[in-house]
Specification:
Layout lengths: L1 H20 L23 E2 L5 E2 L8 H8 L3 E10 L5 E6 L6 E5 L6 E5 L4 E4 L11 E2 L4 E3 L2 E2 L2 E8 L5 E9 L8 E9 L2 H11 L10 E5 L12 E2 L5 E6 L10 H5 L2 E6 L6 E8 L2 E4 L2 E4 L6 E10 L2 E12 L21 E3 L9 E8 L5 E7 L7 H15 L4 E2 L5 H5 L10 E8 L2 E8 L10 E8 L4
Parallel strand pairs: 15-22
Antiparallel strand pairs: 1-2, 3-4, 3-5, 3-13, 5-6, 6-7, 8-11, 9-10, 11-12, 12-13, 14-16, 16-20, 17-18, 17-21, 18-19, 21-22, 23-24, 24-25, 25-29, 26-27, 27-28, 28-29
Length: 461
Amino acid sequence: MKRILFFLSSLVLLIFMSACGGDDNNGGKPDVINGSQAWSSVTFQRLSDGSFYYHDGQSPDDEVLRNNVFGKGWKLVKANEIGDDGRMITNSYYAKVPSEALFFDRDGSKLYEYHLNENRVTSGSHKIYTGRDGWYSFDSYAGSDRWGDTQIIEYNKDKDGHEYIIVLGRLYSVGSDKVLYGVKYYTKLNDDQATDIRDRFEEKVPDDCKFGVKIDAKKYPGAIGDSIFYAPFEFIHFKMTDSNGQSIIRNPAFAYYDSITWRRSDNVGGTQKLCSKDGDVLHAKYEWSNYFYDKDGIDILVEGWRRGEVVYSVYLNMKFRQRDFLCYNWSDKVGTPDKTGTGIYNMFIPSEQYLLFTPRYDKDGNLYARVFTWAEKGMAPKEECEQLYELLQRYYPSVLKVKADKVEKCRSFFHCLPPADIPVYYTNQWGSRIAIVLAKGDEDLGTPDQYYIHAEPSEDE
């Protein structure tokens, strides 16, 4: 009987030990990164800088990243090293990885990496890039049309519905200078966890060094709820304010921050500097202006940087709505015609510039306005036409090509169209008749063909 009991006890102990320690003597830790992909069977491509790349095109696309990964915090759970052959080493749970958490800005342009055991933060810089193949980085360009040495290769949910990301990148070892790369598994932090980690590292900006931004521009006539709308092509002027809302030259913020920048949340056009330091010399401006070509809206971020990270920011949501014709209402009072036009320059899209002629009356009292392309070196006529067409379609979706036998009928819709100029596209929307017009050049005089937009009030309105 004793022998039977000893046998049964040994059998139970053997089963228990097998269940707890059977992962290649890995202390019971999982030896394969969980996920929908069989990452243990993937061969990762080694690049010239020693990092690895997942190249089969299945990384999360930009929309998945923006909707599910950006704006959230992620806690490192486990990691496996990648061997020299490019394969994940399934029996080497990387125990020396510091406790690590990632936080992405909501647009993905900024990333904070917290190493909790070492009480330090590695933060992003102006050169952060995310999007293509899920790449992100901290510091510099690494070649191969990508930034950095880290790649988000999967976003998914486990069988219990918990969100996770799988990252291919550098393993930060404690007490070792050896650079290792691996596959890392992060789970999403809840709000309380994220707040607790952020509070440990967040720099407290002095109240008198906090800044604000005022916008000076014409409001869209006719309130829609509580919203203020700006018009495309409208001149918009910004003023930085101090903590009391005053626009002053000696703003304490200029001395406190290493630099102050502004950018679009979608990162189109990169980052523009408002304040920077060259040794003891401060370069700062508290007023700046821009034109925008957006149709619906855009988020603007003004960010204060210290020691390579954003420690304070102001978020501006700008909403746009076209008026009768771009930024003009035909009912507005028309002053003296501007014979030279106004150059419209958007610093975020410098390749797209326009020359805008404000509404004016012809000799018979008919009202019209025009838009030309505008660039220092000029544009080929075909490129002019394409750019103007894309501009019109942005705000007036029903833009139709004028057939050869309809040119004269289209011309009859306008009062101020020169007889020799030919309408090639036409639309009648939002209280305006609008055409893209070809002005034929003169070979004898050496003048090229030129396209422009001609607009007049719609008589149907």
